[in-house]
Amino acid sequence: MRTLGLDFGTKTIGVAVSDGLGLTAQGVTTIRRTSLKADLAALAALAQEYEADRVVIGLPLNMDGSEGPRAEASRKFADTVAQSLGIQVELVDERLSTVAATRTLLEADVSRARRKEVIDQVAAQFILQGWLDARRPQDTAAYHADDDYDDSEP
Fold first, then answer.
1. Average pLDDT, integer, range 64-93
2. Which one, 128, 129, 142, 153, has the greatest CB density within 10 A?
């Protein structure tokens, strides 16, 4: 099963999805918000399409770690998504995810118009990738493919 990652905003919801192994996150789409009912229907369709069994939603904490109005709205949305979709929802710290997404798009020389189109799904990708990385066992780096290479042979 896969995990959906969401960057929840007032006008849009950026969506990313994990690969089947839970190693990488890919941006999928940006939902233009019109109504809660439409938002939930779009998320339900994506969850079904990607066979997602979990949703990770970015929690916009203040830089000092406190919660403001946007964090409260995200918590409320997370509860609604969990009830509506009937799957597990987790909230994760999303501080600086949009900054990182913007920097990545700038470094990739993406045009301003294109950045505006994809910024939310790239932010969702950063949120989900951070969550996936935090869940990955720490000993996965113990083996490297080059370990089998013996450079002492001619």
1. 92
2. 128
The DSSP line for 69-137 is: HHHHHHHHHHHHHHHHH-SEEEEEE-TTHHHHHHHHHHHTT--HHHHHHHHHHHHHHHHHHHHHHHHS-
| 112 bridge partner residues | none
Q: What pLDDT sits at residue 96?
A: 66
Return d(Cα 36, Cα 92) in angstroms, integer. 21
Cα dihedral 146/107/11/55 (nearest 10): 10
Q: In sequence order, what are the residues at sequence separation of 6 or more whose Cβ sits closer than 8 angstroms to the Cβ of residue 61?
A: 67, 71, 93, 94, 95
How many CB atoms neighbour CB 107 within 10 A?
Answer: 8
Asked if pLDDT for residue 147 goes beyond 60, the answer is: no
Question: Which residue's entry shows tokens 């020389």?
Answer: 109
Euclidean distance between CA atoms 40 and 45, whole angstroms: 9
- What number of residues does the chain have? 154
For residues 92 and 115, give the distance between their C-alpha atoms in angstroms, rounded to a whole number: 24
Sign (positive or negative) of CA dihedral 53, 43, 71, 24: positive
Residue 93: which of 70, 119, 76 has the closest Cα? 70
Asked if the model's pLDDT at residue 129 lies above 60, the reply is: yes
